[in-house]
Amino acid sequence: MSAPKKVVLAYSGGLDTSIILKWLQTEYGCEVVTFTADLGQGEELEPAREKAVMLGIRPENIYIEDLREEFVRDFVFPMFRANALYEGQYLLGTSIARPLISKRLVEIAQETGADAVAHGATGKGNDQVRFELAAYALNPDIKVIAPWREWDLTSRTRLIDFAEKNQIPIAKDKRGEAPFSVDANLLHTSSEGKVLEDPAEAAPDYVYQRTTAPEDAPDAAEFIEIGFERGDAVSIDGETLSPASILTRLNELGGKHGIGRLDFVENRFVGMKSRGIYETPGGTVLLEAHRGMEQITLDSGAGHLKDSLMPRYAELIYNGFWFSPEREMLQAAIDHSQQHVTGTVRLKLYKGAATCVGRRSDHSLYSEAHVTFEEDAGAYDQKDAAGFIQLNALRLKLLAARERRLKR
């Protein structure tokens, strides 16, 4: 790959990406544009601007953008229409953020005339795959630079030495090895590494940042109502809110009640297993609510087919194929299934659990007349079940008869 002339760097303002910024300048002698996305990670982003200026980046080449609404509206909500869970448990908080960051990296590269983008993901993880597959899907000619796969700064000591030689500020707690690494956005926090690497050892309490321990959560349950339109949450307790505002509020409620903790050993796309601690309070509440809404509005055939597609859909997101045709095909089917998923769900939040306790909808398929144990006024003829059972039993009878015949 020829040396890039101008690179757009996904820049957090932290030590690692600051080192990458300086490394790009020294290794390639190229111009660097920094891009910092506010996805609801809860950190002040202006220090990233100040550090970029200090490292020689011109103000017009510093991009700091609030993408919270776009993140929830165009990425999180479509994923939640599918009830997506990777390996049955993980709500894909990190995975779903990467395509949006990549999208903006590629767009900014086009806007600024840059010929490359760069990221700070390591060569052992999933994020390198997610960033790069998304970038190539959006611009097949873009160059992608992954310093962790190229440089010789292979230890924390070497990184610190490089920072000191290049006058990059180092926070005091960064001089030793951090106890674990954290990725955060409006959907979740993810903690991995160091004190969490032994899956046999319980995670220390200090790892959890977004949720109260369930045993310390309020002793009184809290009830809330979430309104849905066509599969997306639109209100909480009757108040219409924007997508990002809904998730922010559900994070507050879920976190207070200790909801959404997950200690998970997952299979990374690159082949190894890794252990992570995830906190997804608002997402866990939202998943329970959406499931409750679908229970009365989604036809059984459509619902069961949708559930069978979900693991494949979740795997595509986890592996970085958000911008693939197969994900878009599945999304079209999922979105079609949501046209009647409209109504209100009542939830109980208590000691680490979000439980659906009521649902109502003008689009409901639930018929009390058909399921009642009382008189049903002719809504359902129970004698019809006999023929239904006989037809479904026919092949089982034939199989049993064959087994009996062969044993004689």
From TrEMBL:
Enzyme class: ligase
Biological pathway: Amino-acid biosynthesis; L-arginine biosynthesis; L-arginine from L-ornithine and carbamoyl phosphate: step 2/3
Every Arginosuccinate synthase C-terminal domain range: 180-398
InterPro entries, per the entry: Arginosuc_syn_C, Arginosuc_syn_N, Arginosuc_synth, Arginosuc_synth_CS, Arginosuc_synth_type_1_subfam, AS_cat/multimer_dom_body, Rossmann-like_a/b/a_fold
Catalysed reaction equations from the record: L-citrulline + L-aspartate + ATP = 2-(N(omega)-L-arginino)succinate + AMP + diphosphate + H(+)
This protein's record includes keyword Nucleotide-binding: yes
Keywords annotated in UniProt: Amino-acid biosynthesis, Arginine biosynthesis, ATP-binding, Cytoplasm, Ligase, Nucleotide-binding
Annotated positions binding L-aspartate: T122, N126, D127
Entry binding sites for ATP: A10, Y11, S12, G13, G14, L15, D16, T17, S18, A37, G120
GO biological process entries: argininosuccinate metabolic process; L-arginine biosynthetic process; urea cycle
Domain Arginosuccinate synthase-like N-terminal: 6-169
Keyword Transmembrane: no
Record-linked Pfam families: Arginosuc_syn_C, Arginosuc_synth
HAMAP family per UniProt: Arg_succ_synth_type1 (MF_00005)
Protein name: Argininosuccinate synthase
Organism: Roseovarius spongiae
Taxonomic lineage from the root: Bacteria, Pseudomonadati, Pseudomonadota, Alphaproteobacteria, Rhodobacterales
Designated gene of the protein: argG
